[in-house]
Amino acid sequence: MGALGQQQPAAPARPSLDYEYFKTKVEPIFLKKRPGHARCISCHGQGTPMRLQPLDPGATTWTDEESRMNFDAVRRVAAVPGNVKSKLLVHPLAEDAGGDFFHNGGKHFASQLGTLCLSAAGEGTNKKVRILQTNSAGDNVHVIDPATNKVVGVIEGIEVNHGVGGSPDGSRIYISDEAMSTLDVVDAKTLKVTKRIPLSGHPNNIAVGKDGRRVYVAIIQEPGGVDVIDTATLTRVKTVPTKGSIHNPYVTPDGKYVVAGSIVGKTVNVIDTQTEEPAWYLQEDLGVRPMAFASNPDGSTKWIFVQMSGLNGFAVVDFATHKEVQRIKNPPLPAGKKEVPEGSDPSHGMAVTSDGKTLVVCDARRQDRVRRQPGDQRRLRRGREVDEGDREDPGRLRAEAQHHGPPAVGICGLVDCERC
Fold first, then answer.
1. Measured between alpha carbons, how far is 306 from 286 in angstroms, rounded to an integer?
2. Is the C-alpha dihedral spanning 117, 122, 128, 134 positive or negative?
3. Cis amide bond preceding 223, omega within 30
4. Rounded to the nearest 5 degrees, what angle is found at the Cα of 218, between the Cα atoms of 216 and 223?
5. Spatial distance between the Cα atoms of 322 and 401, rounded to a whole number of angstroms
6. Could you tell me which residues come within 8 angstroms of residue 210 by beta carbon, excluding any fewer than 6 positions away?
7. Would the pLDDT of 408 be above 60?
8. What's the rounded Cα separation, in Å, for the pair 365 and 391?
């Protein structure tokens, strides 16, 4: 009994390898063509101890089932996070940088930094971030370098363009074409339209899946729905039914759900990206406009922030309970400021910063920053206000943080957080 009473200290938990991280950040490395080297898949798709699933003819990436099989194969040779002696890292690494003596596939990386930087982009720091500015009253989309605030390219020939997004590898730009009811595919290098994919109806905004295999297109034309586009075949594979026509679709930060808002139906529609079927929906009392998300420590979705027609503020929806738990209003306009014209939305556009700590919200004559109150999961407090000056448009904001390809952004107002 005495021996049993003496508790031994528990062994520290062994860090686990994350499948979603592998699929979005590690797996693309195996398909990347590096100058002077064969792609990893060329050897590891056949006849090697670490065997990846072979690609189907014409496929540019793996299915989710195949990715999970790849994950099982890779984690047998990958060390826990933080171990730079992982076989997965040192085998293709130059010997003088700490790599193995020999690798049949050659030495792809000259330094440990090179192997780590490649985890998402495939080119490390060579990737360029671009802002894509749509023009719904025209027929072009402007490409802007955020470092210089200069227009560096123009995509021509897409009338009444609305939603825009980039593939994770930066090779394609997807734009919803309201004039032709298509999703237009643009080569990111030439800025030329290479394909127009017919949709089930008149589109509005779009969202690109985290792994780039799907593009989700909001169908505003009755009866509505979300069109699912396969980016390997560039075809519409299905339309997911929704309660009301859809204005904005979003992919949750963990990539597991599409959240689509209906203005007419006044609903939040949640779609499972694995089954591509409706998961749940929430009926609201006002039309659903832009949305943003907060995550739990494990990466799952915690809250949906929902802007609504006529509401100068936003609602907070608990993702786990599917219920609205709070409604926050922006402060009234100060003396001398005009209310927005009737029929306009006083608050339209919001985004969560990349560190997950700040929600930036557009107001009619200002932008509010709203911070989560530490220690209280349900309470939010308002931060500083940034006056954008008088304008007839109440302002819109979308932001895509940590995006290695062209960011899916449509911006009419920006907050300089360094000056706030």
1. 10
2. negative
3. yes
4. 125
5. 26
6. 20, 24, 168, 251, 254, 255
7. no
8. 7
Q: How many CB atoms lie within 10 A of CB 376?
A: 9
Number of neighbours of residue 47 by Cβ within 10 angstroms: 7
Least confident interval from 144-148, 260-264, 318-322, 331-335: 331-335
- Summarised one tens digit per residue, pLDDT across range 1-33 is 333 344 444 444 444 677 887 888 788 888 887
The CATH topology of domain 128-340 is Methylamine Dehydrogenase; Chain H (2.130.10)
How far is residue 344's CA from residue 391's CA, in Å, rounded to a whole number?
A: 13
Chain mean position to CA 345: 25
The residue type at 287 = G
Q: Which residues is 165 bridged to in the sheet?
A: 174
**Strand, helix or coil at 224?**
coil
Which of these, 125, 122, 127, lies nearest to 108 by C-alpha position? 122
User: Which three-class secondary structure state does DSSP give residue 33?
Assistant: coil
Strands (E), 73-160: 131-133, 140-145, 150-156
List, for residues 142-179, the tens digit of each pLDDT value: 999 988 989 999 999 999 999 999 998 889 999 999 99
| Band (224; pLDDT cuts 50, 70, 90) | very high
Annotated domain spans of the chain = 19-125, 128-340
